């Protein structure tokens, strides 16, 4: 495992922990898109079904279990425990416009036409756009809490580091996965505007807002 994948995994884990702590400490999920979190739970569920069929390493298995557990814990906090604080009026992105096309694409473009491979491909495609409901929600409310922006920053950083990881693996291992790379590029592009606002506003102590 190279340093870029490791730091990418740690950035991903940091994003998840930041979000969980934010919800738990404030006893509120205000400003958090429940739809994005449900999509991420679906991403991890469909991607890590290989936990039932194969073992790669203790690190790999542990991280997969943590991702799945944290994803469902987040969904539980938003949809059940702190449901009264959930801002459903602004979380209105039509997720079917993401899930249906992504599902169709996974059937058409994959490495192998088998159930596990199609579901893995579906998870890769879906992850690249799963953050859209959250970004859409911020654009509707006009601003985001600082802690929420830190969550989004580490989530975007994770994907950017994974892109570097793919480049590293191509040059030093000869490994190339077009599906993962293209999806990663799409996801990183979606974060570009956010990264700019994060650096120019949040890091200077200002609130982040997206154009409505």
From TrEMBL:
InterPro entries: ER_ret_rcpt
Annotated GO biological process: protein retention in ER lumen; protein transport; vesicle-mediated transport
Presence of the UniProt keyword ATP-binding in the record: no
GO terms for MF: ER retention sequence binding
Topology within the bilayer: Multi-pass membrane protein
Residues passing through the membrane, by range: 65-83, 119-139, 151-172, 178-199
Family recorded in the similarity comment: Belongs to the ERD2 family.
Name the record gives this protein: ER lumen protein-retaining receptor
Species assigned in the record: Perca flavescens (American yellow perch)
């Amino acid at each position: 495992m190279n340093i870029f994948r490791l730091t990418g995994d740690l950035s991903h884990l940091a994003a998840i922990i930041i979000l969980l702590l934010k919800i738990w400490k404030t006893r509120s999920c205000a400003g958090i898109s429940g739809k994005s979190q449900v999509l991420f739970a679906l991403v991890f569920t469909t991607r890590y079904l290989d936990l039932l069929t194969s073992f790669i390493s203790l690190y790999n298995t542990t991280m997969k279990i943590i991702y799945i557990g944290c994803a469902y814990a987040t969904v539980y906090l938003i949809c059940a425990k702190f449901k009264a604080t959930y801002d459903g009026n602004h979380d209105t992105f039509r997720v079917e416009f993401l899930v249906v096309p992504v599902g169709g694409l996974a059937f058409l473009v994959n490495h192998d036409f088998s159930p596990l491979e199609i579901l893995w491909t579906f998870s890769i495609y879906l992850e690249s756009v799963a953050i859209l409901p959250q970004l859409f929600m911020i654009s509707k409310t006009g601003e985001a809490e600082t802690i929420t922006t830190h969550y989004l920053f580490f989530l975007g950083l994770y994907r950017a580091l994974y892109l570097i990881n793919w480049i590293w693996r191509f040059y030093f291992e000869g490994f190339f996965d077009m599906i993962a790379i293209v999806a990663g590029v799409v996801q990183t592009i979606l974060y570009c505007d956010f990264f700019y606002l994060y650096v120019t506003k949040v890091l200077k102590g200002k609130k982040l807002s997206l154009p409505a």
